[in-house]
Amino acid sequence: MPDRRDRLAATTLALVDIPSESRDEAAAAAWVEQELAAAPLRLAYREGSALVYETEPAGRPLVVLAGHLDTVPAQGNRPGWIEDGCVVGLGASDMKGGVAVMVEIGRWLAVERPDLTVDLALLFFPREELPLEESALPGVFAGHEAITRAELAVMLEPTDNTIQAGCLGNLYARLVVRGESAHSARPWLGRNAIEKAIAALAPLLPVPAREVDVSGLRFVEVVSPTGVEGGIAANVVPDSAALDLNFRYAPDRAPDDAERRIHELFDPVGEVTVTSNSPAARVVVDATLVQSLREAGGFAVEPKQAWTPVAEFDAAGIPAVNLGPGATRYAHRADERVEIDELVRTFEALTRFLRGSV
Q1: Distance (Å, rounded) from C-alpha 148 to C-alpha 64?
Q2: Residue 192 to residue 190: CA distance in whole angstroms
Q3: pLDDT tens string 213-249
Q4: pTM of the predicted protein model
Q5: Segments in the chain forming alpha helices (H)
Q6: For residue 165, how far is the Cα from the chain centroid?
Q7: Are residues 321 and 252 in the same domain?
Q8: Which residues contact 256 (CB under 8 A, 6 or more apart)?
């Protein structure tokens, strides 16, 4: 076989060059099927662009390696290229590099036929970059229930090759403050909703951050205003003003507790409507398989200060962590890239982990 480093770089570049913006992942899924045709893996599930490959069950702990095929829209960064030891282009970091490592593990199984100490599943899925309502994972869990018996899922999203445990919950809400419209030349005849909102929100914002220690990891819980809307016309006192809120809550909160907190903060100001609420994920750093994974790569362990699909695995009863070769600072950028040496590091650590060579 060609040098592993060159092969991982070439595979990542090939994936970067396949258009796979969200809802258009079919070509990428077909490419993965072609590349894994010779691997000693059974295609256990296929629905649209979601694929699950499995080794022959042998009664060992089941480990799932998972990666999404979609990217954000292109920014003049496809096709990709290689420079300065990196693969550069759309999705290189988030997360064509991680998918390339998964494909290379399939090739490794085909060529080297290693003895594994775990049962293995490779899960490729679409639409991760879209709102949770469009996630493909609930369909996978319902359509292939065997995967929910996994003892660990490793989501290969960009983490700079650290194990990022747990994740924040992600709640979106809209606050509407009501007033009464009037001519702007005679504002005393109405109630200016914008002025009312500013006065009521001034003592509340910014909402103080809350630091939470979970299994020795520090999560920072924050509420951020992310949008504002108001006004009817330049000469009209507005009768309503709206504020969009994003609450990133710590893993020690349940979703209903997060909703209560938002209402507690903002109900005195106006009408609060929660529009979306994605749960946080448990922190599973003390699990035996996670410790083995950590030792296999000498990985640092950090909190996931964001929301990721590990929360969906957790909701399905599957312990999960994030670990991937991509650099978080390059995700979604026009100059998105992944270091080839980091691809190699992820691959080698995962193969040691799967063989139990730690």
Answers
A1: 10
A2: 6
A3: 999 999 999 999 999 999 999 999 999 999 999 999 9
A4: 0.90
A5: 4-16, 26-35, 97-112, 137-143, 193-201, 255-266, 288-297, 310-315, 340-355
A6: 12
A7: no
A8: none
Q: Is 328 helix (H, G, I), strand (E, B) or coil?
A: helix
Residues 157 and 263 occupy one common structural domain: no
* Catalytic member of 25, 70, 221, 312: 70
Who's near 112: CB < 8 A, 6+ residues apart?
Answer: none
Active-site residue, selected from the candidate residues 25, 128, 221, 336:
128
pLDDT bin (cut points 50, 70, 90) of residue 131 is: confident
Residue 302: CB atoms within 10 Å:
17
Bridge-partner residues for 86, per DSSP? 83, 339
Closest among 38, 41, 34, 30 to 120, alpha carbons compared: 41
Q: How many whole angstroms separate alpha carbon 147 and alpha carbon 163?
A: 22
Q: Residue with structure tokens 């490419």? A: 31
- The Cβ of residue 110 has, within 10 Å, a number of other Cβ atoms equal to 14
Note the pLDDT tens digit of each residue in 103-124.
999 999 999 999 999 999 999 9
SS3 102: helix
Whether residue 70 lies in the annotated active site: yes
Question: End of a domain among 252, 278, 304?
Answer: 278
Q: Confirm whether 112 is a catalytic residue.
A: no
Cis peptide before 79 (omega within 30 of 0): yes
The residue range of the domain holding 184 is 169-278
* Residue written as token pair 């109405």: 190
CB of 346 closer than 8 Å to CB of 161: yes
Q: Which of 163, 137, 150 is nearest to 216 (CA)?
A: 163
Of 244, 278, 312, the domain-final residue: 278
Same-domain pairing of 160 and 286: yes
Q: Any idea what the CATH number is for the domain that residue 255 is in?
A: 3.30.70.360
pLDDT in tens, 33-71: 999 999 999 999 999 999 999 999 999 999 999 999 999
252/264 Cα distance (integer angstroms): 18
